[in-house]
Amino acid sequence: MTTVPPASSAPGPASSNRVVDRAVAAIEAIIAERGLTPGARLPSERAMVAMIGTSRGSLREAIGRLSAAGLLSVGPRGTTIAAPLAARWAEGTIAAPLGARIAADPGYGRDVLEVRQGLERQAAFHAARRALAADRDHIRRCFDAMIDSHGSGDAGDEAQADAAFHLAIARASHNAVLHSVMSSMFGLLRSSISDSLEKLYTVPRTFEQLSDQHRRLMETILAGDAEAARDASDAHIQFVETTIRGIDEERARQVRAAALHAPSIPQDRQKSRS
């Protein structure tokens, strides 16, 4: 349990600031330790006071600081909810600039796939070793939601559900740093998946293949087979990367072929236009 020493009965300004600083650190630790994702509720104020060992006033001031920083938001009944998490720094300094670059040059999407492979294979490996019953249930629910989303006809919803499934695996790894990094990249992950699906679904039976890969990944994690889970994650990303590369190469070939057969403009007409 994360605790901070209780404040003295009559603290001065400097002492009060230190108490609030410790309360802020304790709240951030609770978010990381519990693997709370954006939208998840924090414990009640009473529970937080007991967990941290501080006063309600100091707790509320700490929540106010974190709300101002964009980490927390306060609901209509005063319930605090985890917004973009402890990886806020990474989101602002890494994910957001990369998002702009990817939008300008789709070639960066291949870099995202390489990073995904490195992160997700580790997440799968450790999730298979460390997942608790609640983690396994969460992974199952995310898998079912991902399969159901395919029939919605909304590519954005499908990409969101797919990203949530992979984030559930990262959460089950019980590695706070790995989960925080992947949480900070949630927007990039969702965009990467959306762009990938747009291309992949031009190939027949791709949904069935992806579903089988995701099911295999889930089943190896639920079975606690860490090596097989890591292999399943690698196979999934490699399938996506190889298939997209083939699609891109075929499209480029078609563009070249179209340019080759396009009617040329006679030299005298080109001169008359200049």
Number of strands: 2
Count of domain modules? 2
Residue-averaged pLDDT:
80
The radius of gyration over CA amounts to 24 Å
Low-confidence stretches: 1-11
Q: What is the general shape?
A: elongated
SSE string, helices as H and strands as E:
HHHEEHHHHHHHHH
CATH superfamily of the largest domain: GntR ligand-binding domain-like
Beta-strand percentage? under 5%
- Structure annotation, total helices: 12
Secondary-structure content class: mainly alpha
Instruction: Give the oligomer, counting copies of the same chain as homo and different chains as hetero.
Output: single chain
- Span between N and C termini? 77 Å
- Here the CATH topology of the largest domain equals Four Helix Bundle (Hemerythrin (Met), subunit A)
Describe the sheet with the most strands: 2 strands, antiparallel
User: Strand sequence of the main sheet, in spatial order?
Assistant: 1-2
CATH structural architecture of the largest domain = Up-down Bundle
Helix content: over 70%
- What's the CATH C level of the largest domain? Mainly Alpha
